[in-house]
Write the structure tokens for this entry.
Amino acid sequence: MSTELRGSEEPAPTARAVPVIQVVSAVVAFGGLRALKGLDLDVARGERLAILGPNGAGKSTLFNVIAGDIRPTEGAVLIEGRDCTFLPSRYRPRLGVVRTYQKARCLDGLTVRENLCLAVAGRRRHQWPLWRSRRDRQLDDAAVAVAEVVWLTDDLGTTAGELSHGQRRQLELGMAMAGDPEVLLLDEPASGLSRGEREQLTELLGSLAGEVTLLLIEHDMDVAFTVAQRVVVMADGEIVAAGDPDQVRSDPVVHEIYLGVEG
Ligand SMILES: Nc1ncnc2c1ncn2[C@@H]1O[C@H](COP(=O)(O)OP(=O)(O)OP(=O)(O)O)[C@@H](O)[C@H]1O
């Protein structure tokens, strides 16, 4: 079938088949310690993938490699098939790859609306009209729209410093969503949250648009197994198990290596 005859909304099969993220034989050495030992990982567009593993397994290092915060000693990182191994982290949001950090990076003295406006402005600098009042209005509209996505519409006027722990995570998620990411890397989004806040965050992550690819490092099994379609378990710089949540939950290797118990 010619390209012209194919439905306009249907992507070409080759475009659909290319993983949005490919980590190829990645090695990260810190002196004599190899935090990643030739790791391979493909992430499909729209996939929800959780990365689990005990402390020191190499999860953050893998995230840092994908986000460009660390350059692998060997191997490559491809974003939508393009070799980005040497592309600095600050350029990766332009390719749609945005990460959060374990510590929220919002400004406490600014309101939710202002924090989101800054995030929107920072991520899409080239898109804004030069006419200031129009730009301000568009920025504000975009910030309000993001607040709705992360369930903070009622808190637009609240300063970040006054938000609960869970709401701060929502704000941080909103700041990451502000740039219309294709791939969101979430570093322990549920850490430090109460049970109710974790449940709310799990629901919120599940509500994000299906086309956003989600990669999360998460120690909380309930969050990871609920949000993820596929779970990858790391230990000692390698992937030791992978599969859907049920497969991973019943994998004896996971019980032994991750949970520290046999059977
Ligand atoms: N900048 C660094 N310099 C030296 N060693 C490092 C550095 N970053 C990580 N490491 C080491 O690399 C290994 C993997 O660390 P990493 O933080 O990736 O693991 P992790 O699975 O994210 O652990 P955690 O769950 O505790 O955050 C660990 O042994 C760690 O001490």
Q: What stands out?
A: Residues 107-175 form one domain. The longest helix spans residues 132-149. The longest strand covers residues 33-43. The pocket of adenosine-5'-triphosphate is lined by residues 30, 33, 35, 53, 55-61 (CB under 6 Å).
